[in-house]
């Protein structure tokens, strides 16, 4: 009876020991994954800083583009008004010629 009890307890202790080894391995793998994620986050942060710096360097050019875009829109409106005015003048000139 004692030998069976000893065998049973040995089996239980072995299973518990194996469970702890498995947990230890899982913790090590999790730790490695977190280190990888940390490295990825550091790289992303570095790249984001670089992108922000490049964007700041481009900002004056982007502002110039916005100003040019506004000027082009104003010029386009002036061209439409000039076109409408020239059509009115042409219509008046044609009326005068018919007389």
Architecture blueprint of SSEs:
Elements: H1 2-98
Protein name: Biogenesis of lysosome-related organelles complex 1 subunit 2 isoform X2
Pfam families: BLOC1_2
Family: Belongs to the BLOC1S2 family.
Approximate strand percentage:
under 5%
Q: What value does the average pLDDT take? A: 92
CA-based gyration radius: 40 Å
Question: What string gives the helices and strands in order?
Answer: H
Explain this structure:
It is built from 1 helix and no strands. The protein has one helix at 2-98. It has 99 residues and is mainly alpha-helical. Helix content is 98%, strand content 0%. It is rod-shaped, with a radius of gyration of 40 Å. It holds the Pfam family BLOC1_2. InterPro entries: BLOC1_su2. Belongs to the BLOC1S2 family.
Label this structure with key terms.
99 residues; mainly alpha; 98% helix; BLOC1_su2; Biogenesis of lysosome-related organelles complex 1 subunit 2 isoform X2
Give the gist of this structure.
The chain is mainly α and 99 residues long.
